[in-house]
Amino acid sequence: MTKEYTYQTGFGSYWQSEALPGALPQGQNSPQKPPFGLYAEQLSGSAFTRARHLNYRSWLYRILPSVVHSPFQAIAHEGITLETQNAPRPTQMRWHAMASPHKPTDFIDGLKTLLFNGAPSQHQGAAIHLYAANTDMGNRYFYSADGEWLIVPYEGDCELSTEFGKLTLSVGEIAVIPRGVRFQVNLLSPTIKGYICENFGSPLTLPDLGPIGSNGLANPKDFLIPHAAYEEKQGDYVLLGKFNHQLWQAYLNYSPLNVVAWHGNYAPYKYNLSHFNTINTVSYDHCDPSIFTVLTSQSAYPGVANIDFVIFPERWMVAEHTFRPPYYHRNVMSEFMGLIQGHYDAKADGFVPGGGSLHNMMSGHGPDKETTLQAINAKLIPQKQTNTLAFMLESCLPWATTAFAFDPNLLQSNYHDCWQEIPILFNANER
């Protein structure tokens, strides 16, 4: 087997990898007899007839085909089966961080759905989950037929073992597991916690740069893709699948991570957010938050995102005669904010790592009273924003809430108070 934690680089490339030299067939994708007695299987992440640059697929050369398992049976999972849900609402909401589990809990058992929109059956929208785990997945493996998983940790390190190889994931990094890819999460820290955006729409990709030019934002070369690594082991294993918001279970007697070689452009990847090249201003007015977009999933309407993943990292704040924090705002898009580490420059308190806030379309939001008054009276000198890493999941569809979103241990009932004492400074006699 190849050495663990070796990576290929480049976003949107066509990669190939083999754990045994000679395992990749030459010329044909599906020869009559693949090397080493392997089976050829194609994993398609898009319709066969999509344009070449939007056609996602990989060929997997595996010990057993993925179809070798018992029939699926639906099982209960209080966290991700949407038995109770609420219509989208305009009320601004904010949450505390989720508590750590007190009993052995793996990555799947520790999932809780907070928000969702659209529908996986229609290939649009997304769900936002929180996770907290303190034990490995053991003999359990998982995939989602509903959408690709963007995993954003804020506590602890873990190892993602996938059909394509292994990825380690630490705070300050993100990982994306494509729709349908089977994987397992094992801990490298006592506890792991984070956010997940499950994207039901078109796969995440890098945004166009337009007038920015050829450089800036996330660089394709900084995305890492695993080398092939396979598990050749027999036993009693459980395959969990998420299908139309329902968890399903099947049994198999061989590890599903038995891919010895693969090639294609549909594979898991990770990215270190510290490599993001922030674009900012040196004159007046800071730019719209779209300049902080790392990845985007486009909707059917050009220029309108199904999901944008946006970050607010450490950066220099340089501008002339400008209100520095995020401006007061109402937006046709709906925004969920999360905090990975440090503090967020639009709020003095209440917004913590692991917490979140929701501002649905056309609901006003912006900095609190304390932040506003400090910004109005601040001396405008070059300043570096440090000890911060926040993110936003922005969607053209409004976010609906689950019952879990109203857990009194999580939901902050006094979020609106942060704006209620903003003073009236208006004076008609003074410019």
Automatic annotation (TrEMBL):
Q: Where is the active site?
A: H286
Keywords per UniProt: Dioxygenase, Iron, Metal-binding, Oxidoreductase, Phenylalanine catabolism, Tyrosine catabolism
Name of this chain's protein: Homogentisate 1,2-dioxygenase
User: Which organism does this sequence originate in?
Assistant: Candidatus Berkiella aquae
Q: Which GO terms describe its molecular function?
A: homogentisate 1,2-dioxygenase activity; metal ion binding
Keyword Magnesium assigned: no
* All residue ranges annotated as the Homogentisate 1,2-dioxygenase N-terminal domain in the record: 6-273
- Coding gene? hmgA
**Domain Homogentisate 1,2-dioxygenase C-terminal, chain residue ranges per copy:** 275-422
**Which InterPro entries does this one have?**
HgmA_C, HgmA_N, Homogentis_dOase, RmlC-like_jellyroll, RmlC_Cupin_sf
